[in-house]
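Support request, priority: normal
Reporter: lab tech (M.K.)
Component: structure prediction queue

Hi team, I submitted a job for HTH cro/C1-type domain-containing protein from Companilactobacillus farciminis yesterday, and the status page still shows it as pending. I've pasted the exact input below so you can check whether something in the sequence is tripping the parser. The sequence length should be 148 residues. Please let me know if I need to resubmit or if it's stuck on your end.
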Amino acid sequence: MDFGAQMKKLRTSRGLTQGQVAQKLNVSRQTISSWENNRNLPDLEMVVLIARIFNISLDNLILGDPTMTNKLVKDGSEMKRAKWNLYFSLSMIFAGIISFLLFRLIGSTVDSNGYLQEPFFLVPIGYLFLLVGLIDGVIYLVQRFKRN
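Reply from support: The job had stalled in the queue. We restarted it manually and it finished. Here are the results:
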């Protein structure tokens, strides 16, 4: 049985209207209608709430519909990718800050021949790390808000 039909069956068997279910889930009645008509599918958090409200297991709610199962697997992999993306952005920004701190800590000296000795390469590397981290973070945020 597909998710929409199962959702409608659960709702009607308990004598609830779409509006009442929507109120319990803090969504609009139109959202419930779009789920029941298979125009959209809920995310995993909402599926858990639906299972709690109707007092059924997630297995019974999800595994009957391959479309729902595939959507939840896809959502899970997107979440994992988003987490790694966030870790990458933060590590790049942290590496940039470390580069600047190292430049300041090492400092500069003048050797006996009068040549300036300093780790100048740390400055552009620091800017590169910061730039990569910020760009990656902005791309992540844009993609995330586009999906919602």
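The chain has two domains: 3-64, 77-147. The chain has seven helices and two strands. Let us know if anything else looks off. Ticket resolved.
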